[in-house]
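Subgroup meeting minutes
Present: P.N., E.W., G.H.
Scribe: E.W.

1. P.N. recapped why we're keeping a running log of single-chain structure predictions: easier to compare across weeks, and new members can see raw inputs and outputs side by side.
2. G.H. added today's entry (442 aa).
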Amino acid sequence: MALLGAAHMGCVGVDSSVDETSEEALENSPADEIQSAANSTMGIESGVQKRTHQNGETQGGAPGSQVDSRRGVLQTGSKPTSPDNPDGQIDKNSIEGGSVELPSQGDGSDQDAVVEGGDVGDGGIEAAANQGAEQTPMLGLPNLFQAVNPWAKDVSALVKHAKSTTITNWLKNAGGWGFGVMKIDFGLTVLDADSATPKKTFIKTNEFYSPDCDHVSIPVPAVGNVEAEQGYGCTGDGDCHLLVVNKAENKLYEMWRADIVNGTFYGGCTAVWDLTKSYPSTLRGEGCTSADAAGLPIAATVFTAQEVKSGVINHAIRFILPNSRIRDNVYVRPATHSTFATSGGVDAPPYGVRFRLRTDFPLSTLPTEGARVIARAIQKYGMILSDGGNIALTGASDRYSPVKWADVGVNSSSLKLLKVTDMEVVDMGAPIQWSGSCVRNP
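Output recorded in log:
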């Protein structure tokens, strides 16, 4: 049997896999098309980049096996096969189309994957709708964490870092943002759960790492989907993040490479965050990753259409860059992790770096008030480098939201006027060399 990650070996380390036609597909698209186009792009760039840092290149071993370049341990996990899918791999053709019919990959009989208190298959929205289920509302993210944490820090009055111009000029000369222009991806969905939401255990894949990741039961709402998909099946071979907020528990569950196939739940690295906790500078642990490369919570730094409509975003914003434009194997606070896929020089921005939009940027040049709300958040809270990929900013999907991106006048190109040289580096501590090991906090 082939490993879950084996389908991606030929794509390792390729930043250029997404060309200008992908950018053109994003330009000035209607809101319902923006998400699909952005999702397919992220599935290529961000998904490949993440697997590069998590799994590394094939380094010998039995056919279909991989060596985890972080740990140097041979991975032996696999997914079930079927006559239609003898290698247990996902059809990459789905990347181009945004969504395809989920191939059969097993009978769901694995005893390690069971639902506690209910059953959710891979059909997602359509299956739940057929059962008469109501749609799961997407959570509004302001004040997601109840305690003080670095992603909610006001950095508007901080002095520009001494290396700010050096770093932004380096990035400009290296190509700037992915695609050379600031874009927004709308592929991530944040789901809301409560005490009645059934929990489901998952089978760890070779993209789950110890001690970084948490092997716990995950609340899976009857209606929902993983990143860039119509349901809970990871058919497009992307990052397939599953993000669930359970306010009844005051917990945020975030999983990378989630995939529910015929009722069987497979999962990569999972991080559980306590929403009542003020985390130490090392967050979940020094050198530890999370569902995002830098070790940060994703949902805490994703902005929503509801926030934009309210006129205020009260937190820093997640941003990403191609791996070749991220400083090699170095991170700064609030990040706790870097990756072997990064290859930028000593003046490249490291994971965890916080960019702040200059105060004299002419906000009136932005196309809509919605775009200006996002820009003002970047002026006050900044944006934190969190993952590798081509589409710079991440807004939450409006699929289950009462407020749509079209309602607030925001699309994938709304911030295209923001250049790398409009940013200032602030709040950057001493660089930390990533050792490849994780020491979890109690």
